[in-house]
C-alpha cells in the first residue's frame, strides 16, 4: 500500500534530484530512502527515477507522479490543520513566509504582539525572495506569506493590508528646492541604485521610473536595502525607500535626505497570501489584523516625524 511516507520521500527527491540531500531533509539514511523509492516504484509498477552518477533525473511518469504527490501532501496537511484549528484561532505550528524588503521593518513590531495575543501559536519564519516563497506556499512548505501584491496564481488567495509609499533617498548634500516633489520618471536613471535581480522591490522601482531591465545604471550587486541606503548616505547615488523601512534604514541619519514624489505617489500594496484550499482562513485573518494595526502605527509615526522636521 502506498503511504504518505512514500509520497513525502519521493517529493523531496523530485526537488533535490539527489539522494543524500533528500535523505537529509527527510531525516533518514540514504539507503533507507533508496529502499523506500524502490518499494514505491514496485507498488506503482513503473520507473520514476533514472539513477545517474551524482544525481537522479525524473522520468516522464516521475514528473507526473511528483506533481500529484505534492497535491496529496498539501491536502493531507490542510486536513490536519483543519482538525487542529477548529479548536482555537492561531494555535499550533504556523509557517510564515516573508520577503526581505518587509521582514526587518515589520517583524520586530509584530512578533511581541503575536506572542502576547496568541501564546498557543508556534510561529516559524521563512524569509526569502517572492518566487521561492510562492513555490513553497503552493507546495505546502509554508502556510501564509507576507509579500507585495498582486499575485496572479489560480491556487492562491490574498488580502491587502496596507499601502507602502516609496520615498526618494538622496545624499543630504544634493541641491534640490525644499518643497520640490520629483516625478519618478524624471530621475537620473544612471544614478539609481537597485537591489539584485529577483527582488520585487527592484522590479517595482524599474516600473515606477519607466525603466527597462536593460537600462544602464550603477551595479553594486547589493542584496539588502540596508546596503543600498548606506551607499546613498556616502554619495554613491539615489534609491527608492519604502516608507515602512524609513525608521530602520534611515532613522536620524543626517547624511540622507528623503523626498516625497509628486502625486500620485508611487507605492506598493503589502498583503497576506495563502493557498486557496487552506482551512486556516480564520488564523490568517487574525494575523492580518495584527499586521495591519502595527504597520499603520509605523507609517503614522513616519509621517509625524516628517511634519515635525518640516
TrEMBL record:
Highest rank taxon of the organism: Bacteria
A GO CC term attached to the entry: protein-DNA complex
Keywords associated with the record: Activator, DNA-binding, Transcription, Transcription regulation
GO molecular function, one term: DNA binding
CDD domains, per the entry: PBP2_OxyR
Domain HTH lysR-type as annotated: residue spans: 2-59
Alphabetical list of Pfam families matching this protein: HTH_1, LysR_substrate
InterPro entries documented for this protein: LysR_HTH_N (IPR000847), LysR_subst-bd (IPR005119), WH-like_DNA-bd_sf (IPR036388), WH_DNA-bd_sf (IPR036390)
Family assignment from sequence similarity: Belongs to the LysR transcriptional regulatory family.
Protein name as it appears in the record: LysR family hydrogen peroxide-inducible transcriptional activator
Species of origin: Chelatococcus caeni
Highest classification ranks of the organism: Bacteria, Pseudomonadati, Pseudomonadota, Alphaproteobacteria, Hyphomicrobiales
Amino acid at each position: 500500500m502506498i503511504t504518505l511516507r512514500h509520497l513525502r520521500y519521493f517529493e523531496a527527491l523530485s526537488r533535490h534530484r539527489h539522494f543524500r540531500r533528500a535523505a537529509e531533509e527527510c531525516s533518514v539514511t540514504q539507503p533507507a530512502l533508496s529502499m523506500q523509492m524502490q518499494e514505491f516504484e514496485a507498488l506503482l509498477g513503473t520507473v520514476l527515477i533514472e539513477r545517474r552518477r551524482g544525481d537522479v533525473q525524473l522520468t516522464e511518469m516521475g514528473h507526473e507522479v511528483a506533481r500529484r504527490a505534492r497535491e496529496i501532501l498539501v491536502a493531507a496537511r490542510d486536513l490536519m490543520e483543519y482538525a487542529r484549528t477548529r479548536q482555537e484561532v492561531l494555535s499550533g505550528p504556523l509557517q510564515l513566509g516573508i520577503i526581505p524588503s518587509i521582514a526587518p521593518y515589520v517583524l520586530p513590531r509584530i512578533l511581541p504582539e503575536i506572542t502576547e495575543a496568541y501564546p498557543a501559536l508556534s510561529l516559524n519564519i521563512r524569509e526569502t525572495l517572492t518566487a521561492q516563497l510562492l513555490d513553497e506556499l503552493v507546495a505546502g512548505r509554508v502556510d501564509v506569506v507576507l509579500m507585495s501584491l498582486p499575485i496572479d496564481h489560480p491556487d492562491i488567495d490574498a488580502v491587502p493590508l496596507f499601502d507602502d509609499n516609496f520615498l526618494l533617498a538622496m545624499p543630504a548634500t544634493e541641491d534640490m528646492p525644499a518643497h520640490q516633489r520629483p516625478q519618478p520618471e524624471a530621475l537620473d536613471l544612471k544614478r539609481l541604485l537597485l537591489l539584485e535581480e529577483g527582488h520585487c522591490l527592484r522590479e517595482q522601482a524599474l516600473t515606477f521610473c519607466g525603466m527597462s531591465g536593460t537600462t544602464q545604471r550603477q551595479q553594486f550587486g547589493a542584496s539588502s536595502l540596508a546596503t543600498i541606503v548606506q551607499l546613498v548616505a556616502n554619495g554613491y547615488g539615489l534609491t527608492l525607500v519604502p516608507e515602512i523601512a524609513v525608521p530602520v534604514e534611515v532613522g536620524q541619519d543626517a547624511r540622507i535626505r528623503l523626498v516625497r514624489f509628486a502625486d500620485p505617489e508611487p507605492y506598493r500594496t503589502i498583503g497576506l497570501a495563502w493557498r486557496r484550499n487552506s482551512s486556516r482562513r480564520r488564523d490568517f485573518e487574525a494575523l492580518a489584523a495584527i499586521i495591519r494595526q502595527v504597520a499603520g502605527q509605523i507609517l503614522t509615526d513616519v509621517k509625524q516625524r516628517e511634519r515635525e522636521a518640516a
